[in-house]
Amino acid sequence: MGALLQQRRLAMKVKDVMHKGVDWVSPDTPIAEIAKLMRAHDIGCIPIGEDDKLVGMVTDRDIVCKGLASHTFDARRATARDVMTEGIHCCREDDDLAKAMHHMEKLQVRRLPVINKSKRMVGIISLGDLSRSASNDLLTETVRSVSAHH
């Protein structure tokens, strides 16, 4: 029975565990609005899109470390562009869960946007999502690597 469950978990796809219905905001979105969205939806990141493409990500950590901790930061005027991490790594909704986990591990990221075959964002997969579905061994390995000091 344990081997069958392990096989089923390895065969799971990203779309089976991802957070669906995720939207993005423009790089010109004020930081205060992004923080309110994070609080309202109990999330730690917001994808940033421009010209129908994902261009970056703002995390709660970005707001604090790149924003509030900076001597020149003006929270009343700051936008996503001021603190976002540019360039974005994604996985596909039809990727095997193990493949997405290895991708997160390699990049040392806690969340990945999920795209479909048309390259449209359809969700986000996070360590929290994985914790409910992945095998303990694979999850432990991924969490250790993603959480390593970098």
Structure overview:
This protein is of the alpha+beta class and 150 residues long. It has a single domain, classed as CBS-domain. β2 and β3 form a beta hairpin. α5 packs parallel to α7. It is globular, with a radius of gyration of 16 Å. The relative contact order is 0.19. Keywords: CBS domain. InterPro entries: CBS_dom (IPR000644), CBS_dom_sf (IPR046342), Diverse_CBS-Domain (IPR051257). It comes from Bradyrhizobium diazoefficiens SEMIA 5080. This is Putative inosine-5'-monophosphate dehydrogenase protein.
Question: What would a concise description of this structure say?
Answer:
With 150 residues, the chain is of the alpha+beta class.
Structural key phrases:
single chain, 3-stranded antiparallel β-sheet, 150 residues, CBS-domain, alpha+beta, globular, 4-stranded mixed β-sheet
How are the SSEs ordered, and which strands pair?
Elements: H1 2-11, E1 19-20, H2 31-41, E2 45-50, E3 53-59, H3 60-68, H4 80-83, E4 85-86, E5 91-92, H5 97-107, E6 111-115, E7 121-126, H6 127-131, H7 136-147
Parallel strand pairs: 5-6
Antiparallel strand pairs: 1-7, 2-3, 3-4, 6-7
Number of strands: 7
CATH fold-level label: CBS-domain
Which consecutive residue ranges, at least 5 long each, have pLDDT under 50?
Answer: none
CATH class: Alpha Beta
Proportion of residues in helical segments: 40-55%
Please give the largest β-sheet.
4 strands, mixed
CATH architecture: Roll
**Structural class assignment:** alpha+beta
